UniProtKB/TrEMBL annotation:
It comes from the Bacteria. InterPro entries: LysR-type_TF_proteobact-type (IPR058163), LysR_HTH_N (IPR000847), LysR_subst-bd (IPR005119), WH-like_DNA-bd_sf (IPR036388), WH_DNA-bd_sf (IPR036390). This is LysR family transcriptional regulator. It comes from Burkholderia mallei. Pfam families: HTH_1 (PF00126), LysR_substrate (PF03466). Residues 15-72 form the HTH lysR-type domain. PANTHER family: HTH-TYPE TRANSCRIPTIONAL REGULATOR, IRON-REGULATED VIRULENCE REGULATORY PROTEIN IRGB. The keyword Transcription regulation applies. Keywords: DNA-binding, Transcription, Transcription regulation. One of its GO terms (biological process) is DNA-templated transcription. CDD domains: PBP2_CrgA_like. Belongs to the LysR transcriptional regulatory family. One of its GO terms (molecular function) is DNA-binding transcription factor activity. The keyword Nucleus does not apply.
Length: 320
């Protein structure tokens, strides 16, 4: 274990705690041989570590003779201080390890705004009541964020995963649904084929598989369109509100527009044509085993999504 202590030039830090551990064993065991056996190290390495420590702090810590070893006054002072330091350090490490096995502490979660608004809001409300000892912070952002820099424990992504270097788990899938508002349809011709889609009225947003083009399929046929689109926004929620306001046509995750379709605020276009399915993914930023907090929240999300799948199966297809 290595510690770098930064200070002014008159301050000297112990850069390697193994050196301190060896010194303490020498004092406690009374000889190099006994210390080496206790630490499962060679006697020469024990002697070398002590010499490095003495050189580092420029002080003799141990009196050496052919018969015995005894700490100097400086050595006694360092040993007494080290005992309290090491004991406190072990206590802190023990308490930190316990956190991984307890449903307490802070959990930071990141997710896109659409998924957060539609799903995580309900999940979080139930979760904090079920686990009152867990603090929950949710970062909603449709832009890429530095998960490590933001100290995020668990991140969710919808669509087509872009994050690299993290442990990923797929939790589910969703359909993309092409929609427009009744107000828009009253003012414009309803498309019968993907080629009929008016590019000038296409609302591009960050939740689409690709901002510059879309692919439609129908019974083995595939059509790729590249609507120029005068409206392009990053936020899925903003694009959704624009579609509700009659600004144009766009595609959204089925879970985001299901209620709008049922209530008639939006209606589905080209229902016989499908777009690529998107996925719902969870990412863990730490390489270690997941903490209890992470496992509990992930289980809550999985249970919620499984319940939605059951409801959709009973209700049938997404309304048109």
């Amino acid at each position: 274990m290595t510690v770098l202590e930064v200070g002014n030039m008159s301050q000297v830090g112990i850069r390697n705690l193994n050196h301190l551990r060896v010194f303490m064993a020498i004092v406690e065991k009374g000889s190099f041989t006994a210390a080496a056996e206790c630490l499962s190290m060679s006697k020469s390495l024990v002697s070398e570590y002590l010499s490095r420590l003495e050189a580092e702090i420029d002080t003799q810590l141990v009196m050496r003779s052919t018969r015995r070893i005894a700490p100097t006054d400086a050595g006694n002072k360092l040993y007494c201080a080290s005992q309290a330091f090491v004991s406190g350090l072990y206590d802190v490490i023990g308490s930190i390890r316990c956190l991984r096995h307890e449903s307490t502490g802070l959990l930071r979660v990141a997710a896109p705004s659409g998924f957060s608004t539609t799903h995580l809001s309900s999940i979080a409300a139930t979760f904090i009541h079920q686990h009152p000892q867990i603090e929950l912070e949710i970062v909603c952002n449709d832009d890429e964020i530095d998960l490590v820099g933001e100290r995020v424990d668990l991140a969710f992504e919808t669509g087509w995963p872009k994050k690299k270097g993290f442990r990923m788990k797929m939790l589910g899938a969703f359909d993309q649904v092409l929609v427009a508002s009744p107000e828009y349809s009253r003012r414009h011709a309803v498309p019968r084929h993907p080629d009929d889609l008016p590019g000038s009225h296409w609302i591009g947003h960050g939740g689409l598989a690709n901002l510059s083009y879309s692919v439609f399929g129908n019974e083995g046929r595939s059509v790729r369109i590249q609507p120029p689109g005068r409206l392009k926004v990053k936020s899925v929620l903003l694009a959704h509100q624009m579609a509700l306001a009659g600004a144009g046509i766009s595609a959204f995750p089925d879970y985001l527009v299901a209620e709008d379709l049922r209530e008639g605020r939006l209606h589905r276009l080209l229902p016989t044509w499908t777009m690529p399915k998107g996925g719902i993914y969870a990412f863990r930023t730490a390489p270690r085993q997941a903490s209890v907090r992470e496992r509990l929240f992930l289980a809550a999300v999985q249970a919620y999504l499984a319940g939605l799948c059951g409801e959709h199966a009973r209700a049938g297809a997404v309304p048109t």
